[in-house]
Design brief:
six-stranded parallel β-sheet, 10 helices, nine-stranded mixed β-sheet, 15 strands, alpha/beta, Rossmann fold, Dihydrodipicolinate Reductase, domain 2, globular
């Protein structure tokens, strides 16, 4: 398997290591990256054959079997659009777009494209989530009526102290972070999000020294993070969610949590029961409303993204080598982006926002 890389930062080089574990014959035939040291981030056994190139035509001239896109967020869509006509399988990092214009152009480009796209949504591949989904989709649990989902991020400083702080690249943390979570929520419910009402808080923690307790006044101030008026990532944000099947939900993400305050997961409520799961706790609890017992499951998996990256890379190999249908297709990536864009719009306007639907014929 000959793989070409567009961007070779920490995320994509890590996924390449996962691909190599499943496919020892993997070759990296080309790397398109402005950093002359990009190839040095690859596993040592893959560096000899990797050719650093400066343009997309040069990359395609290396005759890859597939392409992985792991650039900074605002470049995901442009590179994917440029590859749509090639028919090559694509591993595409999330978010698949950072604006409505990018997303709609991406959807048009892949309408009836032969390229199979695997969007990097590892949460939907994790053993914990798949076990929870089996219960949620079972006749015994029935239809979910309400969802409470949370992401208390213990490493939130990264979105203000590294390149992620550039709002022009991320367009905010609904698109950068919630895209994962809204994806698994729609997958679990089996219906898209159609309407959103959202709020966000900017600059109260990561800019305004008067709100901080302890440490020097500049402890959470990083040059270049922008401003609430001109655009910056949010300290926290929340959204009311309406799904196409009538399910209602609430999602909240907080970026100044620390240490054991970390939480990521959801609580689903049906007439028959309440199911809660949390990736950090590595457990699922199901409480049955009409029966005198509860069930619990604890997952032993502790690897990257709770086992999701391992399953994601194995699946991408199946897509490339065996023509398997994508389990996280471009339609899922676009549905998540459209929901995140609606949340961003709602938080900026103080109104409910309708979510655009995906209408193209996508592989």
């Amino acid at each position: 398997m000959k793989l070409a890389l567009i961007g070779c930062g920490g995320r994509l080089s890590g996924l390449v290591g996962g691909l190599l574990a499943h496919q020892p014959g993997l070759r990296i035939c080309g790397v398109l990256d402005p950093d002359p040291q990009a190839i040095a981030r690859l596993p040592e056994s893959l560096r000899a054959d990797a050719r650093l190139v400066g343009t997309l035509p040069e990359l395609l001239a290396t005759a890859p079997d597939a392409v992985a896109i792991g650039t900074r967020c605002n470049l995901h869509a442009p590179y994917a659009i440029a590859l749509a006509a090639t028919g090559l399988p694509i591993l595409l990092e999330k978010p698949v777009a950072t604006s409505l214009a990018q997303a709609t152009e991406l959807e048009r480009a892949f309408d009836r494209s032969r390229s199979r796209v695997v969007v990097s949504f590892p949460l939907r591949y994790t053993p914990l989530y798949l076990r929870a989904k089996d219960i949620l989709r079972s006749p015994a649990f029935g239809r979910s009526e309400h969802i409470l989902a949370v992401n208390y991020v213990s490493y939130g400083e990264v979105y203000f102290a590294s390149w992620y702080k550039d709002h022009a690249i991320t367009q905010g943390l609904f698109l950068q972070k919630a895209t994962h979570d809204l994806d698994y929520l729609m997958d679990a419910v089996g219906a898209p999000i159609v309407r959103v009402a959202a709020m966000a808080s900017h600059g109260r923690v990561y800019r305004d020294a008067a709100t901080r307790a302890g440490g020097p006044a500049e402890a959470h101030y990083h040059p270049g993070i922008g401003s609430p008026e001109g655009g910056m990532n949010e300290d926290s944000s929340s959204a009311l969610l309406e799904f196409a099947d009538g399910t209602r939900g609430v999602y909240t993400q907080v970026f100044f949590s620390r240490r054991r305050a970390e939480r990521r997961g959801a609580t689903f409520s049906s007439y028959a029961g309440t199911l809660s799961f949390d990736w950090y706790q590595r457990r699922i609890d199901t409480h049955w409303h009409q029966q005198p017992f509860s069930d619990s499951a604890v997952i032993d998996e502790t690897v990257a993204h709770w086992g999701g990256d391992h399953a994601l890379t194995r699946h991408f190999i199946d897509v490339v080598e065996h023509g398997a249908a994508s389990r996280s297709p471009l339609s899922a990536g676009l549905a998540s982006v459209y929901a995140c864009l609606a949340a961003k719009q709602s938080s900026e306007t103080g109104t409910f926002a309708e979510v655009r639907g995906v209408t193209a014929d996508l592989a």
